[in-house]
Amino acid sequence: MLDKPDNTLDPALLARFAAIVGEKYAITDREAQAPYLVELRGLFQGHTPVVLRPANVEDVSKILKLANETGTPIVPQGGNTGLVGGQIPLHNEIVLSLNRLDRIREIDPTSNTLTCEAGVTLQRAREAAAAADRLYPQLLPSEGTCTIGGNLSTNAGGTAAVAYGIARSHVLGVEVVLSDGRVLNGLNKLKKDNTGYDLKNLFIGSEGTLGIITAAVLRLIPRPRAVETALAGVPSPEAALELFGIATERTGGDVTSFEIMSRGGIDLVLQYGANTRDPLAEPHPWYVLIELSSQQREGTRILLEEMLEQGMERGLVLDAAIADSIEQGKALWRIRELFSEVQRFAGGSIKEDISVPVAAVPAFIKEANEAVTALIPGCRPVPFGHLGDGNIHYNVSQPIEADKAEFLSRWSDVNKVVFAVVKKYGGSVSAEHGIGLLKRDILPSVKDPVALDLMRSLKRLLDPNGILNPGKVL
After folding, report:
1. What is the mean pLDDT of residues 115-125?
2. Where would a tag sit more exposed on the chain, N or C end, judged by fewer CB atoms within 10 A?
3. How many Å apart are CA 34 and CA 217, to the nearest integer?
């Protein structure tokens, strides 16, 4: 989707914005702007008069104060890894890139906190925590590029949410610049603070439409002393779900990831993914990737082996491989991490990010598969994702030799049939990617009317001039 450049910026006003960050960090060259203007999957392509790269919260405050006074729309951006178009300037807005706000301000191992700025990448946050013998438990395949600010603004999920929760679960405090330039300083490290409303959660998940998160206090946990990874072939999603039940019963909170993958997706990974091989001796209809983490140095592998043996005895596990080294574990995870990326080589791919109650995942997959193949004969459903928390990335690849553009034009049709199944099981049409622009027009049909009215009221209150990421979410 191309933008419609309907906002113009007076050269004198452009110079005022540029002066805040300095000429070097006010990008007007079209070629230099390119990385900020295209969404990762190429669905959205934007246009901007300038990309501003502030150095600190004071710069952000000055930019928003000027923008609010002049009615200049702003699109905040982190690592530009979002998948719903929320970070793209579709109507010639100014892009406010936060990746220069990249300081780790403090690590406090005693309080188990890390205070960092919005532009710190997830990988750096995790490395800083590890250096203090702690773990920042959010984990995303894009960790080297995505930023803490972006993770929080979209309330990102990830592969470890089954044990540790989503982005909101990891935050004790935030620093936020409001639309008028005021700075909300909520950077406290307190686990208990009942002094009024919990304002931080207004901004986490708001996709930059209510304020711009510039820093956060993140909750850390002790680093696990043992991590074991296995990949198992299973006959069906029902078997995978039953195996998950065994895993949680036998290990308690030690199940940190439980991912499901279809064989069709495995085939695409083997065909298009570099340095990959079939993980088991024979192909199986479905696979689960299991990771256990424990504070106990010994016994975790025995638990994993016993769990898989019990699964085999009950016909839930057809074959399995347990990683014997860190490298083998990474190789198993690489298969999962490539799942989404390789689908582009198979032509058009319509991607959904949904959640249903964990118990309903098998029924959802079955009914959604039936619905989309009836709608588009020959299409290839490629469901995969976080079985342990009910979040399935329900992707659909085009029929072999079909016209890509024609297939992608059916995106809204696929939405309709998939979301009908999601609704039947009391699920959500956006589990961890957000709303952005891609799902904005769907939101009124799936959101409680009272909740939607409250959201609009909050937007009017916190951004009365509509300058923050206009046209996104609402």
Report:
1. 98
2. N
3. 32
| Contact of 85 with 42, CB cutoff 8 Å | no
Residue 352 CA to residue 412 CA, distance in Å, equals 11
DSSP assignment of 146-186, as one string? -BHHHHHHTT---TTHHHH--GGGGEEEEEEE-TTS-EEEE
CB atoms within 10 A of CB 365: 25
Task: Tell me the one-letter amino acid at 62.
Answer: K
In tens, the pLDDT along 168-186 reads 999 999 999 999 999 999 9
d(CA 446, CA 424): 12
Residue 3, pLDDT above cutoff 70: no
Structure-token pair, residue 209: 């439409």
In 26-142 the beta strands, taken as DSSP E runs, fall at 26-27, 51-52, 74-77, 94-97, 104-108, 113-117, 134-135
Q: How far is CA 176 from CA 38, 85, 166, 249, in A?
A: 26, 22, 20, 41
Contacts of residue 204, defined as CB under 8 A and 6 or more positions apart, other chains included, come to: 152, 153, 155, 167, 168, 171, 174, 213
- Can you tell me which residue has the tokens 């993980």? 279
Judged by DSSP in three states, 231 sits in strand
Backbone phi and psi for residue 15, each to the nearest 5 degrees, phi listed first: -65, -35
Sheet containing 183-186: order of strands = 104-108, 113-117, 212-219, 171-177, 183-186
Is-above-0.90 flag for pTM?
yes
Instruction: Quote the CA–CA distance of 59 and 301 in Å, as a whole number.
Output: 51
CA separation for the pair 364, 42 (Å, rounded): 28
The kind and range of the H/E element at 412 are helix 411-424
**In whole angstroms, what is the distance from residue 124 CA to residue 23 CA?**
28
d(CA 348, CA 252): 40
Give the pLDDT mean for 36-61.
Answer: 94
- Comparing C-alpha atoms, which of 196, 136, 197, 133 is closest to residue 167? 136
